[in-house]
Specification:
By secondary structure, the chain is an all-alpha fold. The chain has one domain. 80% of the residues lie in helices and 0% in strands. The protein is built from six helices and no strands. Helix 1 (3-24) packs antiparallel against helix 3, helix 1 (3-24) crosses helix 6 (88-110) and helix 3 packs across helix 5 (69-81). It starts with a helix and ends with a helix.
Length: 112
């Protein structure tokens, strides 16, 4: 995989992390329980972040250990394969807290 491909994947991660944060703006954890469209959108945005992370080259991952690759990909796997067991408290925490830090880290890695 080329560095260009890695940069495209990081841009995908950044775009979908931002979309998840944007979707959650003005919302609360309870909305995940009551608004199924909101929940599906949040799950999908986080899934795409994880899918893109899974495709980033090992060399790039090694060069950027500040990004929690294993956790990001693991979350994607849970959302895809264990969708009936998704802990909405954890999903909300990812969107409300973790993605903010990830967005900053991705922006730095991309030089944005």
């Amino acid at each position: 995989m080329s560095r260009r491909d890695d940069m495209l994947l990081l841009r995908d991660m950044l775009e979908h992390a931002r979309l998840a944060r944007q979707a959650a703006e003005g919302r609360s954890r309870t909305d995940l329980d009551t608004d199924h469209v909101f929940r599906a959108a949040c799950e999908r945005f986080v899934e795409i972040v994880g899918e893109a992370a899974a495709r980033v080259s090992d060399a790039f991952r090694d060069d950027h250990p500040q990004i929690p690759w294993r956790q990001i990909v693991g979350t994607r796997n849970i959302l895809i394969h264990g969708y009936a067991q998704v802990d909405l408290d954890v999903l909300w925490d990812i969107i409300d807290v973790n993605l903010t830090a990830l967005i900053r880290t991705l922006e730095q890695a991309l030089g944005d």
